[in-house]
Amino acid sequence: MFIKTRHGAALSVDYGNFDLYAHIYNSDGCWDANVMTCCERVLRPGDVFYDVGSSAGVFALDFAKSIPGLTVFAFEPQPSLAKHIRLSIDANQFDRVKLLEILLGDKVGEGSLFLTSHSIHASTIPRERRYRELRLPLRTLDDLAAAGEVAPPDFIKIDVEGSELNVFKGAETMLQAHQPSIVFEADENMRRMGYATGDLLDLLTKAGPYTFFLIDAVGALTPLRKPYPFGNFLALSPRHAGRI
């Protein structure tokens, strides 16, 4: 079974996570429509887009459908979701979308992913008392880039349930060299991981002169100021300042 994203990409439905796809269907083919709108404001034809924590693949597949010449790297470690992203890539005949079924972090080796009652709560630290642990390949974005497995990004969307800081630590060389614009989530999951929003902003500021915005409910941008709220943020690269 397939449903459509908002720009008409075919999305294969994983029945084991049916409520996830029901939400997408009932949201006109979107997941976090405000974040999708923000991404679309910055992305341009021919860009390289990373969808880190791809989940059902809505961002990766919808943008591949709607933005000409976009190259997409979708990162999703959950086997069932990754299987259906792969089915969606094939169904849409997307030859510029690559799926990487791995964990991302700040080191290379093997890592744990804890699956709980819902796929969107999968995390590198358990969020519930009952969980299933998967041992998966663990890579860094810097390692993948050095190995030639990914192209340098123009834009990164990341939503990895609190592991954002570790992913950024594993991408410091890439961030400094290419300064992609980044959309990221900062919420209560950071507390489980032992850091705060300011730690994310400090790391990104060391990588380059980013400008930070809060993304509101309709995708509009407000300059980020203290005290930092939970929410979705845009780190706008100086090379993209003329895009918004």
From TrEMBL:
It holds the Pfam family Methyltransf_21. InterPro entries: FkbM_mtfrase, SAM-dependent_MTase, SAM-dependent_MTases_sf. It comes from the Bacteria. Residues 51-208 form the Methyltransferase FkbM domain. This is Methyltransferase FkbM domain-containing protein. It comes from Candidatus Sulfuritelmatomonas gaucii.
